[in-house]
Hints:
The complex is a heterodimer. By secondary structure, chain A is α+β, with helices and mostly antiparallel strands. In chain A, 47% of the residues lie in helices and 11% in strands.
Amino acid sequence: xxxxxxxxxxxxxxxxxxxxxxxxxxxxxxxxxxxxxxxxxxxxxxxxxxxxxxxxxxxxxxxxxxxxxxxxxxxxxxxxxxxxxxxxxxxxxxxxxxxxxxxxxxxxxxxxxxxxxxxxxxxxxxxxxxxxxxxxxxxxxxxxxxxxxxxxxxxxxxxxxxxxxxxxxxxxxxxxxxxxxxxxxxxxxxxxxxxxxxxxxxxxxxxxxxxxxxxxxxxxxxxxxxxxxxxxxxxxxxxxxxxxxxxxxxxxxxxxxxxxxxxxxxxxxxxxxxxxxxxxxxxxxxxxxxxxxxxxxxxxxxxxxxxxxxxxxxxxxxxxxxxxxxxxxxxxxxxxxxxxxxxxxxxxxxxxxxxxxxxxxxxxxxxxxxxxxxxxxxxxxxxxxxxxxxxxxxxxxxxxxxxxxxxxxxxxxxxxxxxxxxxxxxxxxxxxxxxxxxxxx
Amino acid sequence: xxxxxxxxxxxxxxxxxxxxxxxxxxxxxxxxxxxxxxxxxxxxxxxxxxxxxxxxxxxxxxxxxxxxxxxxxxxxxxxxxxxxxxxxxxxxxxxxxxxxxxxxxxxxxxxxxxxxxxxxxxxxxxxxxxxxxxxxxxxxxxxxxxxxxxxxxxxxxxxxxxxxxxxxxxxxxxxxxxxxxxxxxxxxxxxxxxxxxxxxxxxxxxxxxxxxxxxxxxxxxxxxxxxxxxxxxxxxxxxxxxxxxxxxxxxxxxxxxxxxxxxxxxxxxxxxxxxxxxxxxxxxxxxxxxxxxxxxxxxxxx
Lengths: 441, 302
């Protein structure tokens, strides 16, 4: 631990007793760490947590077990409210706006960047956890480390989206493993379509599953904005991506323009598509299905990371999860202690395990948990946070990125261009114009 | 007399006092939110951040925004087509139900079902009906050999528009039908007897007795129907989320997308407020256009 950080801890701590336990190896036992951080939950503290609701039941079960443990240990009652993940955003916004509501909110994507001033600074906590568990992945830092310095929340993970495919069908067209490059991927998709077992990915206004459009653009070096938030989507790189996308779209099952988030799950589990992009939920649903035919399919379901395009690196896009402590909370110390407790391996490990690999780890240290390798089908999901970029890549996150994402600018552009309703050039120009309004030039 | 007694004996003061609770409710739950919406539309408020007055900037922005223009077109198209169909089908149904048919009360009750089912639920049902892979409509047609591939109900812009309109009509017809039926039953049978004695045909009876007497009800019910359709949200949000390519975005859904998902409260409010003139126009039309006395009483416009 560096001097700098130690001093930071001290600054943040009120207790004198804390200094005594700071030094040495004691730091790495959880009990001592609590003291190191000098988190002293306020007397009579109670906490309210608003979180997005489960994609798999195991997540909420494990989470609630941890919450109960926390209450038993500290005597702090915690009320947890669940909401559908898209409903958390407006509720969190209202809470931030009015200064009343849950103490802790588990939100998604760039929510924290919309009201950074209304969130409690958790730099000490983030640095403590980062040091202890192998460091936060860059995507987590891009989302929550304001200006590269101040942590406005803690990364919780990401609902990893990966390529989900039917091993037998992919083998049947001559691919022993899932293609690693965009070129091979296209070849495979063409072969699958020719064989009557096409793939398909959502092109409707689907908030989660249409994120593959970001991957498509980024794979070829296109991006919505540069690091100075200048809109640069109308570019030769984007053009290439869209031309590639056109060929890809020709291999899709009909109807993907209307697909919202659940459509590909349904079509996949019904055996109508061989490849799609999704969270691990399809596999989990198949595995737990009471229908023997669907259950049988689980053995044939495989996962792979997204193919890599000409840029030569992973360019994945997934839904990111934050943990925010609202500044208005009456019990900031208790809230921080709660997050610390939940992120320690005794709790976070079982939680990730309970979530059945649905949530990818934000801390490198947790990539060694057995959940990622006990079932090899989980392994690709392990690196979702590691491989992802924020949707506002490569610019700064905030209202402009949130607005542009919510308005489906990139998704609409891709859908227009690859379905042939507009030429790639027209689609790019439209997207450029629309994005520029958000990034006000 | 004490002041209180004086007050109690003053007709005007007493009237005011009785109106006060209602006025308070209206101000609190209607005027204030509407006023706030209008105000927000002139600011650049974002979720979590107060805005400053920016005048008409939001409206200028929206005027130049292709998606907003498309949403406006969609909304007008959606409202117009759906309302016309709802009126024609609703009136037809009302006329049928007004006859002496067997199980009259049963049918009258059943007809209301689409209206009773929560919109979100019926929307999910339609979503399945229109599904690209699982549509039962497509399935039946394919099995019957009438088509050889599934219809892309929601993937093609015009298909999608018409599909959501059909869902809206299904849901809206009962309201129109039942209300018009109530109107029909207020028409005294003696008019029909009198006209029958004069040798009027059924069409003449409809044209010169039923329609004029029903006009006030039609005006009211269609005003409401237009208002509901124009501000529709749930159907679209469940079935398409405004897709494909924003072809089914209505003003209401776009407003939500911009204000809540996108965080631009000011802009979203401006979209909502931009709906008000159209709604007012609809009300004015029905008020001045359809409620003219002379026409109602079978006379001609002067």
